[in-house]
Every structure is written in structure tokens, then in C-alpha cells.
Structure to design on (287 residues):
């Protein structure tokens, strides 16, 4: 029984390591700022998720099991999109990316609207 | 009268429950002391933050929220593999990254926040901005042949379900 759980832990660690590697590799390899933002979102979801899964199985095996790892996951899922949004907004604000198309319904994107009022 | 007192004491009942649950998990115990202190936090924190979150979301269908969460987790797994393959094998010049303009049918801030978060968490798309009056979402796609297909996918797969959950 322990053997099976050990294999499961090893597998989770490998998957986690693989996707965190792909995430950081993407950050290096991709060429445009907005594209590079896609790299870390992978590391932040499946990479960390699999690593935490390994830690959780191990904590249950060693006798004092907790589900605190699920909390780490939940907080990460709630906060990661916020920082990604901020970085994207900075790129739009400073113009270090392709110009986004006009929104189809309202007058302007929120970040651009701030720039417009500052200029006038 | 009693209702308005209760509403002032517990402006976000669901948030109170979540805070008690989080406190219990953080302490890994279900003893009375933990629950009581969790309840104190669960009463104080929503009162301190109610000024920044004045409208209480009502009529959330929790059953559908659970199935939506499972769907998103599954999509994260699938999209992770797809995007990892694109990142590792496709040369930069061949990637067609585009902006996608998603007009929104959902109106409540909580639903729009959930949609933007879902889009960012599923690899391959990042939500970048909201239009100034909140009717459009700007999404950046890493590698998309057709921006309209990405838009329709987001609208059908996530937005329609969120509309059922929140509105």
C-alpha cells in the first residue's frame, strides 16, 4: 500500500516539476511582453497544484494529515489572476504591446480611459 | 427590525462561513475554541470590509457553482498540456497571439470577476482589461488562429454558466 502511495507522490512531483519548468522556460523563450505573461500562469496552476498534491499525500501518509494545502491552492487561484491583470494593464498603459482593438460596446478600455483624461 | 440588525451584524453571511472554515483548516482542528475565534473573525472582517463590497450577491446557485469549479479544473488540466506543447514546440514567429474582444452579457461584478479569473487561470488566455463601463472584456490569446472562435468559446463555455449561477 505504501508503495502505491509513494509512486503517486513521485508522479505528482514529476508532473509539478515538468510544468513549473515549462512555465519558466516559456518566460525565457517567448518574445513579446504580453506573450511572456502566459508562461507563469501555467506554473501557477498545474505546476504548484501537482507539487501541493504530493505534499498532501505525504502528510496523510506520515500520520498527521492536513488539508491546509488546499488553502494554499485556493489563495493562489484567487490572487494569481489579479497580479496577471495588473501586469497586463501596465503593458497597455505604457504601450509595450500591440495596440488592443477598440471595445465593441463602450467608448474605451478602462486603462486607456485613464491615459486619455491625463493627456487632456 | 430583526432582519436589519442581522444584516448589519453579518453583511456577508457566506463570507462569514468561509472565514470560519478557512480558520478551522488553518488550525487543522475543529475544537470549540477554534470555531469561536473563527466566528469572531467571521463577524469582524466582513464588517471592516463591507465599505468596499456594499452589494451582497443574492441567489447564487451553489450546486451549479460546484459543477462549474470542476469544469474549470478539468479545463485547466487540458489547456495546460496543450499550451505546454505549444510553448515547447512552436517557434515564436509562427505563434499568432492576438487580442480578443469579449462583449459581456453578465452584469454583476462578482460574475465578471469570476469570468476574468477563469480566463486567466486557463492557460493560453489572459484577461487584460475591462471597458470603462464594464460591458466588454479584453483578453489576450497566446496562439489563436481565429479570435472570434476564442470569443465564442469563452462566451458559451464559461459566461453562459456564470450567468446561470449569478443572475
Amino acid at each position: 500500500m505504501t508503495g502505491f502511495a509513494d509512486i503517486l507522490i513521485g508522479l505528482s512531483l514529476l508532473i509539478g516539476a515538468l510544468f513549473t519548468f515549462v512555465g519558466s522556460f516559456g518566460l525565457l523563450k517567448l518574445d513579446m511582453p504580453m506573450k511572456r505573461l502566459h508562461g507563469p500562469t501555467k506554473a501557477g496552476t498545474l505546476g504548484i497544484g501537482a507539487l501541493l498534491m504530493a505534499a498532501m499525500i505525504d502528510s496523510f501518509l506520515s500520520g498527521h494529515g492536513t488539508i491546509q494545502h488546499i488553502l494554499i491552492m485556493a489563495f493562489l487561484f484567487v490572487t494569481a489572476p489579479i497580479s496577471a491583470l495588473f501586469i497586463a494593464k501596465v503593458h497597455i498603459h505604457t504601450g509595450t504591446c500591440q495596440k488592443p482593438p477598440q471595445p465593441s460596446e463602450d467608448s474605451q478600455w478602462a486603462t486607456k480611459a485613464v491615459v486619455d483624461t491625463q493627456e487632456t | 427590525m430583526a432582519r436589519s440588525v442581522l444584516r448589519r451584524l453579518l453583511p456577508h453571511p457566506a463570507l462569514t462561513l468561509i472565514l470560519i472554515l478557512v480558520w478551522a483548516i488553518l488550525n487543522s482542528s475543529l475544537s470549540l475554541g477554534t470555531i469561536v475565534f473563527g466566528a469572531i473573525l467571521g463577524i469582524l472582517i466582513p464588517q471592516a470590509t463591507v465599505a468596499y463590497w456594499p452589494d451582497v450577491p443574492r441567489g447564487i446557485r451553489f450546486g451549479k457553482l460546484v459543477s462549474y469549479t470542476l469544469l474549470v479544473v478539468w479545463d485547466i488540466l487540458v489547456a495546460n498540456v496543450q499550451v505546454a506543447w505549444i510553448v515547447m514546440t512552436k517557434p515564436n514567429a509562427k505563434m499568432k497571439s492576438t487580442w480578443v474582444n469579449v462583449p459581456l452579457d453578465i452584469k454583476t461584478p462578482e460574475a465578471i470577476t469570476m469570468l476574468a479569473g477563469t480566463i486567466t487561470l486557463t492557460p493560453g488566455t489572459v484577461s487584460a482589461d475591462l471597458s470603462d463601463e464594464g460591458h466588454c472584456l479584453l483578453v489576450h490569446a497566446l496562439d489563436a488562429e481565429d479570435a472570434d472562435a476564442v470569443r465564442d468559446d469563452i462566451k458559451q463555455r464559461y459566461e453562459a454558466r456564470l450567468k446561470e449561477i449569478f443572475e
